[in-house]
Design goal:
Length: 334
């Protein structure tokens, strides 16, 4: 039997703080149930005749495909809309587009630049809107990360996540809040120039304190990762920041996750994993790294037994499905 929280019906997800701690953990739990159900070969009808618009201003492999398959698996449909496909923000305001799409679709997943655009879609569409990444937050990613931690370690108890890299990007902001809500200690290893925004940090610290854990920020990665169970990184240059590439690479070189840093946790041979939201620059096989080679993580770590990045990536689909089901399905148990 599947069960989920009734209170999530018709709810939007702008950032993880949109949900209570319990609601967020309940989503992770539902995703776990849906994953087992799919593994058992069940394709249900939890989203039968539900239609979801996917508005994407930025590229995506995981979020786009996870959303399409999540809804299709359960009997619904999704339409992928990029800026050149529709009048969005060009010949038609975000507010008008929201009101039009809200009359046609049951929900909207948005990936783009401004958090404000995502919030405007939610305000005017009248249907649930889910943030599939903005410049500020990437909440659906963190649901998948939490599921990966839970299924690998069995629970969130006595777990420390060390994020190493650009400490103030969308993934780092959401990961910090997700850890705080799940009662997981969070350490951010990042140069001073990229320390988390003070307000974002203060909000997460309050939640962490309530859940009996702390958040610490270090500029020395070797010191910061001591005792960590999860080493997590993301690209050094997020989508939309390409002009800052050279400066970022210079700043973040000392923050590459390699085997020395994995060893610096003191947990080799114990409770330790590597996570990355992906895409990752771990080898020479991309246009960006064909000359430079690995950036934020070495190939050795990426391909090691500690790396759970493809479980994490698969979990994007199960967690996005949980989000759609809990918001759009008429029943809250089946
Ligand atoms: N992690 C993630 O959001 O991947 P995509 O950019 O491929 O969607
Ligand atoms: N911080 C990255 C995440 C990609 C999934 C970006 O915004 O490009």
């Amino acid at each position: 039997m599947l069960t989920w929280k009734d209170s999530l019906r018709n709810r939007s997800l702008m950032r993880l703080a949109s949900f209570t701690d319990e609601e967020m953990l309940n989503l992770v739990d539902l995703a776990e149930q849906l994953k087992a159900r799919r593994r058992a070969g069940v394709r249900g009808d939890l989203l039968k005749r539900k239609n979801i618009a996917l508005i994407f201003e930025k590229s995506s492999t995981r979020t786009r495909n996870s959303s399409i398959i999540a809804v299709r698996d359960e009997g619904g449909g999704a339409e992928y809309l990029t800026r050149p496909d529709i009048h969005f923000g060009k010949k038609e305001s975000v507010k008008d587009t929201a009101r039009v799409l809200g009359r046609i679709y049951d929900g909207i997943l948005f990936r783009g630049f401004s958090q404000k655009t995502c919030e405007e879609l939610a305000e005017y569409s009248g249907v649930p809107v889910w943030n599939g990444l903005t410049d500020d937050y990437h909440p659906t990613q963190i649901l998948a990360d939490l599921l990966t931690i839970k299924e690998t370690f069995g629970s969130f108890k006595d777990c420390t996540v060390a994020y190493v890299g650009d400490g103030r990007n969308n993934v780092a902001n959401s990961l910090m809040m997700g850890c705080a809500k799940a009662g997981v200690r969070y350490v951010c290893c990042t140069p001073r120039e990229l320390w988390p925004d003070e307000a974002v940090l203060a909000e997460a610290e309050e939640v962490a304190k309530r859940n009996g854990v702390d958040i610490r920020v270090f500029d020395d990665p070797v010191q910061g990762v001591k005792g960590a169970n999860v080493l997590y990184t993301d690209v050094w240059v997020s989508m939309g920041e390409e002009a800052k590439s050279a400066e970022r690479i210079r700043l973040l070189r000392p923050y590459q996750i390699n085997m020395d840093l994995m060893r610096a946790t003191g947990n080799i041979g114990g409770k330790l994993m590597f996570l990355h939201c992906l895409p990752a620059f771990h080898d020479f096989n991309t246009e960006v790294t064909k000359e430079s080679g690995a950036l934020e993580v070495t190939d050795e770590v990426f391909e090691s037994k500690y790396s759970k990045v493809f479980d994490e990536s698969e979990n994007r689909m199960h967690t996005i499905k949980a989000l759609f089901v809990s918001a759009l399905c008429d029943r809250s148990s089946i």
